[in-house]
């Protein structure tokens, strides 16, 4: 239900921006700010059987960590030919979960229900303001032009925080473009794990919140700087959908060079920075999150490399390809890193 999703977003933003509830409103055609109709961009999403990219190999001696670079969203109509990945999974001694942030609030079912009213309040702008009142005029004008297309006549969304609206807008635009309607990678990994009676090894940074109710109430009162998050979502929807589709297609077809040439600012990370930048988060030790997430994953990965002959992991393609990414960090530590052929 939506209340539970809002509570989850407030306590764990990395989960929030990976998942989005479906809007109940049927999208309607929008009008641009100059009065001309907004038309869907001509983008073609690949379908059918696709190979996906090869894996990176990180090794020291005869111990190897095989890494699949991931992209999100992916084409909804593709059928991933995952034979190579399945073969590695079936011989792996350990399978590492993707890096991320896990917020432990020790909330039982009853306590969770008690928090729902606070979570609902926190999902709205402070002092009952609307998006028109909290967004710069030029930004609101852009939003007003596309809102009917993705949210119809939903008036309630105007009272919600830009941080949450940005997530839903981005998800709706992806679905309309033929991206992200179904998971592609996780069912393959989970299927092999189930077959082998194995579990993912967590790599997430865990932060415990002792007072979730107070955290939610503080968030509801605080003016979080989430304009960058909202602006990024608008940019993605207005002009970057062709690049997002091209990136999804490049992953599906295994075109690594195209992926290198298609850097797209990560929507999730921009919005997470807005969430963790508030005073309520700093009070609870939610600081330097990206660096700590990276350090935690590297710690688990190195331990796995030391003890296992074969390990499998997934990382966002940006963390694989960039000069200061996770693989670059392992290479700097003396590991051999081999890109797929």
Automatic annotation (TrEMBL):
User: Taxonomy-wise, where does this protein's organism fall, top ranks first?
Assistant: Bacteria, Pseudomonadati, Pseudomonadota, Gammaproteobacteria, Lysobacterales
Concerning Pfam families, the annotation shows: TraB_PrgY_gumN
InterPro entries in the cross-refs: TraB/PrgY/GumN_fam
**Protein's name in the database:** TraB/GumN family protein
UniProt keywords (A-Z) are: Signal
Superkingdom per UniProt = Bacteria
Q: Signal: is it a keyword of this entry? A: yes
Instruction: Write the signal peptide boundaries.
Output: 1-18
